[in-house]
């Protein structure tokens, strides 16, 4: 190291960069190993209809579970896997598992409705996306009517014209489309009406602010936009009954959050669906 000659700041900068690069490489290697050895599992978070109080579907959320049982949330590996491209393979593992689980639950009469799977920008932009999704549906036997895909504003605003075309192809298959984390990105209203969406998911940040008058106004605005475009609304991250009450008063159709349940393993989800009551605080 000659860095010291150049001053402490340089040394610090170098060390930080090195630490980051090492961590990135470690995560990348772990992901590779996880894909090979099947460490990626799907957890499911229930979505509740406000009008019936019943389970109307769930969101599939990926978890990395090491052989020692350590459960890793996607925040640590999804961003890196987006960069390395590994998110495509992870996403397909999740889609395949989610479709297979849902097919089983529908066949056994346990579930109806839809399973929602998050689609990364990398996946969305694959030239053979439609073919890949069709193959997974064929392979698992799930009807496209029981599948919903969640995409973010960032994914579709990159190349809106192309996105509109891909979205139409997905809709033509019978798949439903939701805009995830709505309001946090920078999608323009003029495009929003051209996107063939079914649902807007109101980001947790707005739900957190539902108690303030500005927060309420924002949510009201989002719900009004959704109504005008004939889209349904889902509130993300509902944690308290006060938030539930406020969201319901404002006319939000579907509620999702820790108030009802954290994301559950497939076994726990089956139990939740059978009992239609939260098995709370079991998984994260
Ligand atoms: P997201 O799609 O917006 O998912 C919602 C996140 O909010 C999940 O975090 C969920 O566990 C969390 N959440 C739900 N209700 C509550 C609540 O009441 N309170 C709080 N504090 N959090 C709540 P998770 O599972 O850690 O996932 C984080 C993000 O990682 C997801 O955000 C999504 O962008 C991404 N992700 C997860 N699974 C996948 C996947 O299979 N593929 C891709 N491409 N991305 C995924
Ligand atoms: Mg999502
Ligand atoms: Mg979301
Ligand atoms: Mg969110």
Structure summarized in a few sentences:
The chain is of the alpha/beta class. Helix content is 50%, strand content 18%.
Question: Please, could you describe this protein's structure?
Answer:
The chain is of the alpha/beta class. Helix content is about 50%, strand content about 20%. It contains twelve helices and nine strands. It has helices at about 10-35, 75-85, 85-105, 120-125, 130-140, 155, 160-175, 190, 205-210, 215-230, 240-250, 265-275, and strands at about 40-50, 55-65, 70, 115-120, 145-150, 175-180, 200, 230-235, 255. The protein has an eight-stranded mixed β-barrel, surrounded by four helices. The longest helix is centred in the N-terminal third of the chain and has 30 residues, at about 10-35. The chain is globular. The N and C termini lie far apart (about 45 Å). The relative contact order is 0.11. The structure holds ligand C2E and magnesium ion (3 copies). One magnesium ion binds near residues 59, 118, 150 and 180. This is EAL domain-containing protein.
Query: Which molecules are bound in this entry?
Result: ligand C2E, magnesium ion
Main beta sheet strand tally, sense and closure = 8 strands, mixed, barrel
Strand content: 15-25%
N-C termini distance: 43 Å
Protein name: EAL domain-containing protein
Organism: Psychrosphaera algicola
Domain EAL: 24-277
